[in-house]
Amino acid sequence: MNSDKKNSFWLALQFIISFSSTLITLKLNLDLYGKEMFSLWLLLFSLWGMGASLDLGFGLTVVKYVADYNKHNKEKINELISTIFYVFILFGIIVFVILNIAVELIYFSTEKYISSYNHKLFQTVFLLLGIAFLFQYIILFFRSVLEGMNNFVMSSKINLANNLIVLVGVTIIYLNKLSMVYLASTYVVASLVIVLTYFLLVKKSYPFLHIKGRLFKLALIKQLISYSFSV
C-alpha cells in the first residue's frame, strides 16, 4: 500500500471509529447524568470546543509551511516549528484566560443557568476541561507537524488512541456511577497522554526536529499570521 493510500485508509478509519466512539460515550453519559446535567456538560464542553476552533487557520498554516520547509528549506525548519510552537502556547493561554473570565461573568455569576447546588461542581468541570483544552492546542501543533511531514498515518493512529482512552474512561465512570469531575479528569488524562505520545514519537521519527527558545524568530510570525488569515 503506497503512502497516499495508507493516509487515506487511516484517515477514513479514524473518522469511522471517532464517530462511533462519540455516539457510545454520548449515550453512556446521558444515561448516567440525565438530560439536565448532561446538557450543562455539553454547554461547557462546546465552549472549549469553540475555543479550540479559534486557531485562526494556524493548523493548516503549520501543515503548509512544514511541508514547504521540509522540501526546500530544511536547515531552517527548526526555526519554523520553534516559532509556531511558542505562538500556539501563547495563543492557547490567551484563549484559556479569556474564556474563563467570560464564562465566569456570563454563566457562573448567576443562578439563571447553573444552580447554586451545582455551581462548584461545574466550575471545577470547566477548569478541568480548560486544562484539557490547553493540551489539545499542543496536540494540534504536533499533529499539524506530522501532517506537514506527510505522516497522516501516525496522527490518525494517535487520534484513535485518544478515542480509546476516553471511551474506556467513560465506560469505567458509567459502571461505577462517578461524578462529572471524573469525566472531565478523563479528558485531561487522555490529552496529557496524547501530548506525551506525540512528543516521543516525533522525537523518535524525526530526530532532526528540535524546539528551542533560541530558535524563535519574531520575523516569521507576520508571515505565518498573514497566511493564516488568508486561509
List descriptors.
231 residues; globular; mainly alpha
Would you write up a description of this structure?
- The structure is a single chain.
- With 231 residues, the protein is mainly α.
- Helix content is 84%, strand content 0%.
- It is built from seven helices and no strands.
- Helix 1 runs antiparallel to helix 4 (116-148), helix 2 crosses helix 7 (218-230) and helix 3 (77-108) packs across helix 7.
- The two termini are 32 Å apart.
- The model has no long low-confidence stretch (mean pLDDT 87).
SSE arrangement, N to C: HHHHHHH
C-alpha-based Rg, rounded: 19 Å
Approximate shape: globular
Please report the total strand number as a whole number: 0
Q: How many distinct helices?
A: 7
In terms of DSSP E residues, the strand content is under 5%
The average pLDDT score comes to 87
Q: How does the major sheet shape up?
A: none
Judged by helices, strands and strand pairing, the structural class is mainly alpha
* Helix residue percentage: over 70%
Low-confidence spans: none
User: Gap between N and C termini, in Å?
Assistant: 32 Å
SSE layout and pairing:
Layout (H helix, E strand, L loop, with lengths): L2 H51 L4 H15 L4 H32 L7 H33 L3 H25 L3 H26 L12 H13 L1
Question: How do you describe this structure in short?
Answer:
The protein is mostly helical. It is 84% helix and 0% strand.
